[in-house]
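Most newcomers find our protein records easier to grasp once they have seen one. A learned vocabulary of local backbone shapes supplies the integers on the structure line. Here is such a record, shown just as it appears in the course material:
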Amino acid sequence: MFLYYLSLGSNINPEENLAEAIERLRNAFQITKISNFYLNSASGFEGRDFINGCIEIVMQEHDFDYINSILKSTEDDFGRDRKQPKFSDRPLDIDIVLVIQEENFIYTSKEIQDYDFVSIPLNEIITKTVSNKLKISEVRNSSFKEVKIYL
């Protein structure tokens, strides 16, 4: 069994887009955990605030490319413009940030260490052992405001 941790974010109709994206992902995957969602400033550019959170999905097989293709297709369905700069407004952004099999890391994104908007919600849904291995057990930015996403 493989645990995939996905980071989700949006700054264009974020409450609506994130709720709908999670419902769509439920149709494709077995979602087992959902973090809180947080309002935070745009990172890397001047733009509207983002709402970010994380989910855990369970897969019997490790197929990163297949899962990533579904995530990118979902982003496209929400109007993601891939011609825009990396750091820009977006209706939906979904990234695989961590893959674990029996608490062994299969894949770890550097975004976990680089961005609190990834590590803070991720830390809510991973085990303490994994959190300690990733060295994210401390909340680093208390300025994030929790936002309710109605699923």
User: Anything to note?
Assistant: The CA atoms of residues 31 and 114 lie 25 Å apart. The chain has a mean pLDDT of 90. The chain has one domain: 2-147. The longest strand covers residues 50-59.
